[in-house]
Write a structure and sequence with these properties.
Number of strands: 0
Order of helices and strands: HHHHHH
Number of helices: 6
Radius of gyration: 14 Å
Strand content: under 5%
CATH topology: Four Helix Bundle (Hemerythrin (Met), subunit A)
CATH class: Mainly Alpha
Length: about 110
């Protein structure tokens, strides 16, 4: 289930296979605040803020190998840079962040973290 949202192997590899550190980083990463700010910027149509928030979320997601959040954030950032609306991606962003949170919990529940 988690594979759609997290590249677990890559995330561990980035941290020299230190699963304890990876778990700590995943649990301390609060993507909901940045995602909420991004949704607010999208709804306001603030291209600069959309681009900044999307870039921030994308960077954090890439560092933690949160693939779905990184993909959606990248699309939103690209649209903002092109001056295109991204309102239609809000549901995708919400699904990605919620799915990622569930995937992290799944990894913990099944003892992989």
């Amino acid at each position: 289930m988690y594979e759609k949202y997290i590249d677990f192997e890559e995330g561990c590899k980035r941290l020299m296979n230190n699963k304890t550190l990876y778990k700590r980083l995943l649990l301390s990463h609060d993507q909901s605040n940045v995602a909420a700010a991004l949704v607010e910027a999208i709804n306001a149509g603030d291209s600069d803020e959309i681009s900044c928030a999307a870039h921030t979320l994308k960077g954090a997601a890439l560092n933690l190998s949160l693939t779905m959040v990184a993909q959606v954030s990248s699309l939103i950032e690209q649209r903002a840079k092109n001056g295109e609306a991204a309102v239609d991606l809000i549901n995708s962003l919400t699904a990605a962040t919620e799915g990622t949170s569930k995937a992290i919990q799944s990894l913990i529940d099944y003892g992989q973290l």
